[in-house]
Each structure stands twice: as C-alpha cells, then as structure tokens.
Batch of 2 targets.
Target 1
Amino acid sequence: VAFEAPKLGLRPVAVTVDHGLQEGSAGIAEQAVDAARSLGLRARVVRVEVKDARGGPEAAARDARYAALRDAAVEEDAAAILVAHTLDDQAETVLLGLARGAGAASLQGMPPASVRDGLALLRPLLAVRRATTRAACAAEGLSPWDDPHNAEHRFARVRVRETVLPVLEAELGPGVAEALARTADQLREDADAFADMIDETIEDIVEHAEAGIAVSVAALAANPAALRHRIIRHVVDSEFGQSLSRAQTLEVARLVTDWRGQGPIDLPGCRALRVGGRIVITARA
C-alpha cells in the first residue's frame, strides 16, 4: 500500500487495533505504528475494549476490531478498508466452516471484496500464502509480530492452523490450502448465481400477509430442492432477521413436498403454517 497508493493519488492511513488482551500490547501497537510511518504512511493506534460475547473471545475480539476499523474509516472519510488475510487464513476459515456443517454458505470463506457497514472491505492478499508475506517482510527489513494468542490451542483456529492443516498436507500431499481456497471461490460463484435466481423468483412467488409473509406452495414445489431451501432461508432471514438450520429448513419444505395436514412449525422468531396454497410465515408473539 505504501508503494502503490501514492502513484494512484490515494492517501492511505495505517490503523493498528490494540485489543488490550495481553501484557505489553500497547507497546507492540506503537511498534507497528512506527513501522508504518517508516514506510511513509500516516498511522494511528485505536484501543478497544473486548467484551466476551456468546460467540467466545475470538468472535468478541473480531467484532471489536471491525467496529474500530469502521469508526476510524469514517473519521478519515475513507473509501475502503484493507485487511491482510492470506490464502492460509482462507483455508482455515473453510475448514472451520466444514466442521460447523452449516452448508455451502459456511464454506465460501472470506470474499476478496465486500461491503461492511456501508464501507468497502478489501482483502488484496487473499491469494497469497502466509509464508510469502513473511518473506516479503524479511526482504523489506520489517519484523512481524507473532501474537502469542496464535499459539494457544484453546482456540479452534489455532488448532486448525498448527495441527489439522499440516496433517492434511502430510497425508494428502501439498496443495491442500490452495484447494480449499479454490473451493471457496467456486462456492461463492455458485452462491452469487443462486442469489440472482432467488431475487428473480421471489418477486413472483412472495406476497405480504398479516404480520408476516406468504409464499406460493405451487411455485416452491416447481423449483429444485436447492433453490427451494434457499428461498425459504432467504425469506426468513430478510423478513425476520433469523437464520434457519438445515433441519428447520427441511421441516418448512415438508409443508410443500410432504403435506399431511401438519400444524404450525415454530422457528426462531417466527412460525410457518400451510394455509391453502400458501406457506404463511408470521412473527411469534
């Protein structure tokens, strides 16, 4: 960024987030700022308070970090936020998604470009191996900071990084990380195609109902299962802000494909019921 941005007329700012989770973190953050300034960048430290959340300390730190980056970007009137996730980070994310078993969506990994809180979030190093970034630092005379948390096996991502991926590489041969990253790319392409199909389909089969929304049974039945299930999940997420598990999605789909007079299905924040030729989904009291 320090090399390319000036040639493009851009004014980058390096933001180091100090989570305050370990002794001496403030000093390490200042070292990062000094390194950025040595490259000619404007640089600043943002300190955050990490409050443990339902998703655990990793999720809490991530939420605090992105909130801090967003706020700093707004203050700087920035057009985009760049973060340095590598191909190795992507492979780890895909494996963690596979372990959760949440379907193709959880295997798409991190997109190279997305919008978060109204700002572009870019990952320009997503096709680059971590070893290459370390070699680049060595070539530039920069000393990377190895976060001690990245060696703590109580974190699932650390276990994937230090145990699972090396075993896969050893047993299956080199190239596992690249294969996982390619899988994420292909699944994101599929998801984008499905999203376009869903947007086109929903306009024709969905209508508003009292305290909720209704979907045509005949139209759902006419679609293949993969699209039908995605429509159901999309409707519940967009209307009620809730994510359905696969089991819950299949139960709603049975109102279409295996209708035997079953009663309403309780879902997170809402309820689904077949009424004539429609699936009516309403908010739960």
Target 2
Amino acid sequence: AGTVRRMFDMAATGFGVYTITKTFNEEGVPTFGRRRQWDESTIQQLLKSRIPLGEYQPKTMSGTGGKKITAGDPIPNY
C-alpha cells in the first residue's frame, strides 16, 4: 500500500510515469509480481485504474480472441 500511495503522491506533485519508474528502479523498490524492475506500463495502468480505490472489475476471457472482457458490474470495497 505504501508503494501505491507514494506512486500517487509523486504523480500528484508533477512527476511523470517515466520519472516514477526510474526512481523506483534506482531505489530498488520491490515490484508486485515476478519482474525484477518496474516498467512504465505497470505504473501507468495503476495510476489510471480504480483498483487502488478498492474497486474490482470481474473479467472473463472471450471465446475466440482470447481477450479479457468485463463480466458484470464493478464490485466496490473489494
């Protein structure tokens, strides 16, 4: 939670995705997955997402294209 808060604080004070990514990687901030380093797309997705607000959007795989599609309404306070 602290990493996400810091990410949003940095963005709110004018830091861009590139700078946040570079800072986290230079400081060795642990990532959320198996990756060893942060990448810009992960940070951008988190900053645009409603997940940090506690909202979950269920998704399912489409039958033919293998793309994720929404499945129902978002679940608040997840």
